[in-house]
Amino acid sequence: MPDRLPLLRVDHVSIAVREMGPALAFFRRVLPIRMREAPRPGYDGQFTWADFFVGDRKLELIESARPESFVEQFIARRGEGFHHLSLDVEEHRLDGHVALLEREGLRIVDRGDYGNGDKTAFISPRTTPGILVQFWQVPGFRGAPPGDVPTDPVATQAGVRFRVDHLALAVRSIDATLTWFRRFFPVEITRRKHLGWDGSHHLLHLWLADYKLELLEPAHPESFVERFLARRGEGFHHLAIDVDRLDVLAERLAADGVKLVAGAEIPGGRKTAFIHPRDAHGVLIQFWQEPEFGGPRRR
User: Fold this and answer.
1) Among 8-12, 266-270, 284-288, which is the least confidently predicted range?
2) Could you give the count of Cα atoms lying within 13 Å of 242 in the half-sphere of its Cβ?
3) Fewer Cβ atoms within 10 Å of its own Cβ: the N or the C terminal residue of the chain?
């Protein structure tokens, strides 16, 4: 690998949905979202997209715009849910970086050149830990976030404060996955592999271009991670969001017809609960109550 990788920044997590309207309405009900772009046509005519912030983290929704689009094919094969992780790439560096990744054995797919320096390329999930990774070369990008990104990671809705904490990946081996990330990305390990709170899984926290990822591997054959891997294979598992008052949030969501599941109280004053993917357009959302909420993300 070169002495200096291109500057990278995680821009957004993309979610494939069947219908944009109901999906946007759901996320508005559940999370304190701030719209960035209303639904608009995608760059190749195959899809419609919209995006929004939760605090300082961006989520994108994509829906099919025509039959046989890549979104339609994805949903037919996998159902609604996480589609890709998108990273901005330093200007003038995408072509060289992609060529290097190909020489290192990664499969690059769906390249696009949209003029004026705007280019994109994807790493196929076949040569990653089950995730589709998008690189987007952004004219003028030198590492700093765009001016429209909020500086406060915390957003509030109905008296509850929210802060997106991490995106979790289910993998067969944390060690092998970490080796992969270290080979191709600038990563920082902030919490080494350890047993999860319920004893069913191991986890590790790493930061990729200032974005927190969690790697999950099963600790025993009955683990929820093992069941996920058997059913879905490696890939995106859940989006974790810290909140300051989980009970208040659960009551509000229940009154709005959204039920939280798998609730648990954890030593140290912590609590957790989830929205099931079947109720959240294929996305497993974890809420995690910290005893001392506020300030920067947990490292």
Assistant:
1) 266-270
2) 22
3) C
> Does some domain include residue 1?
no
Residue 263, classed as helix, strand or coil, is strand
Residue 181 shares a structural domain with residue 256: yes
Beta-ladder partners of 88? 9, 136
CATH (domain of 132): 3.10.180.10
List own/partner pairs for 225-231 with CB under 8 A and 24 or more apart: 225/170, 225/200, 225/201, 228/170, 229/170, 229/171, 229/172
Please give the C-alpha separations between residue 217 and each of 11, 78, 125, 299, in angstroms, as whole numbers.
26, 21, 18, 20
Sole residue written with tokens 């319920």: 198
What predicted TM-score, i.e. pTM, was given to this entire model? 0.96
Domain range for 107: 8-137
Asked whether 70 and 83 are in contact (CB, 8 A), the reply is: no
CB count in 10 Å sphere of residue 224: 16
pLDDT at 26 over 60: yes
The 3-state DSSP class for residue 73 equals helix
With respect to residue 150, please indicate whether it lies within any of the assigned structural domains: no
The answer for residues whose C-beta is within 8 angstroms of residue 42's C-beta and 6 or more apart is 48, 49, 62, 65
On the question of pLDDT at 202 being above 80, the answer is: yes
Chosen domain end from 137, 172, 200: 137
Q: In angstroms, rounded to a whole number, what is the distance separating the alpha carbons of residues 166 and 207?
A: 9
- At 279 the three-state DSSP class reads helix
Choosing from 137, 163, 181, the residue where a domain stops is: 137
